[in-house]
Amino acid sequence: MTLKMLFGRRWVRALGLAGVAAAGYVFGITSDRLTAQQPGNLPASIADKRVVAYIYGNIPVTREDLGEFLIARGGHEKLELLVNKKIIEVEAQKRNVTVTWNEIESGLNEDLRGMGISLADFQKHVLPRYNKSLYEWTEDVIKPRILLGKMCRDRVKVTEEDLKKAFENRHGERRQAKVICWNKDDLKIAQKQWEEARQGDVEFDRVARTQADPNLASAAGLIAPVGKFPDVEDDTCTKILYTLKKGEISQLFQTPAGIMCIKCVAVVDPDPNVKFEGKVREAFEKEVFDKKMTATIPMFFNECKKTANPDLLLKGPPNPQDTRERVNSIIQQTGGTTPPMPTPMTPPMLPPAAPK
User: Fold this and answer.
1) Are 30 and 67 in contact (CB under 8 A)?
2) CA nearest 33: which of 3, 9, 60, 4?
3) What DSSP element (H or E) covers 60?
4) Could you tell me where the DSSP H helices lie in the chain?
5) Residue 14 pLDDT more than 80?
6) Which residues span the domain enclosing 237?
7) What is the C-alpha R_g of the chain?
């Protein structure tokens, strides 16, 4: 459990703890055919599509060969991602849901705006972190995301209360606090240091700077102002903060992150210059909808996956016997003779133990 889950994104952003996550889907081939043979009775057009190269003028290298080659070098690790992508495509076909290149391009531009970077910087600094090309990002990340969004769009409902809470959280009264966290097993230490922290501002800061979290310790526990309705599952911390007056310190309380106490250090008045109307309202409508969509997509996909009931047969790279059968097939195509299996080597005798 992280502070982000307890206080919301704004608290974590102030501590420099926010991260970037991305989902990935990768194409692959999982054929169980290990030989590189020219298909016998297939039409020429189909046979040609299965061949990706020739050697010696007439020996084909097929898509199956390439697939097995990639699987043996780690492609099997991507099978589940490929299966997930296929499930999304099948469910989209059932619903006649499609995605256009313009929509994919818009999705990419939206990603860039959200990160605040140019396409060139995205390719240079972001894509290498995920070991993806720009094509893979658009085809394996953006496209599935758009398809899933279209399929579960009707499930997302934004109420007037949702919008008012989001606006109040951003532009209404906010509280700033200092936080001290202890390990959940360190109750006695927490009680002792809590008593010390209550003696005054200097004592509180001294204890706050000794806590285990380096980000909180470096700031003497200070976090950014937080609104009354943070977008978190457990808002216990925020509720306790809003019961305190400026300068007051809470009792010790348990959270999934450990034992905690909060000191209210400032009350930020509402912003009188921002009204909940016009473009401001439109911006919040989109923001709240996107947040709900982000939460809905995984649940919808899990339902689809349960219906698809995938059975992943490939558990790892080809074993030595599979590899040998493949090599034998290639040798036979060239007219060679398959060498016999080598006799297992007898391990050398160990030297006698030194006398005691």
Assistant:
1) yes
2) 60
3) strand 59-62
4) 3-7, 9-15, 44-50, 63-72, 79-94, 101-115, 119-121, 134-137, 143-151, 160-171, 187-197, 201-208, 214-218, 236-241, 278-308, 320-333
5) no
6) 3-13+169-268
7) 30
Total structural domains within the chain: 1
Distance between CA atoms of 295 and 46, rounded to whole angstroms? 43
- Binned at pLDDT 50, 70 and 90, residue 169 comes out as very high
Decide if 228 contacts 171 (C-beta within 8 A). no
Q: Is 226 part of a structural domain of the chain?
A: yes
The Cα-based distances of 327 to 37, 38, 54, 64, 337 in angstroms read 13, 16, 17, 14, 11
Q: At 333, is the pLDDT very low, low, confident or very high (cuts 50, 70, 90)? A: low
Residue listed under structure tokens 């697939």 = 67
Rounded-to-integer distance, Cα 108 and Cα 132, Å: 14
Task: Say if residues 80 and 305 touch (Cβ distance below 8 Å).
Answer: no
In tens, the pLDDT along 290-303 reads 999 999 999 999 99
Residues 6+ apart with CB under 8 A from 65: 36, 52
Asked if residues 323 and 72 have their Cβ atoms less than 8 Å apart, the reply is yes
Here the tokens at position 342 are 């080598």
Quick count: other Cβ atoms within 10 Å of Cβ 182? 22
Which of 16-25, 50-59, 239-248 is the least confident region? 16-25
Kindly give the pairing relationship between strand 258-268 and strand 253-255. antiparallel
Render pLDDT for 23-75 as a digit per residue (tens, 0 to 9).
333 333 233 332 333 444 545 555 577 898 999 888 999 988 888 888 877 77
Domain CATH code at residue 218 = 3.10.50.40
Please list, in sequence order, all residues whose beta carbon lies within 8 angstroms of the beta carbon of residue 21, skipping any fewer than 6 positions away.
none
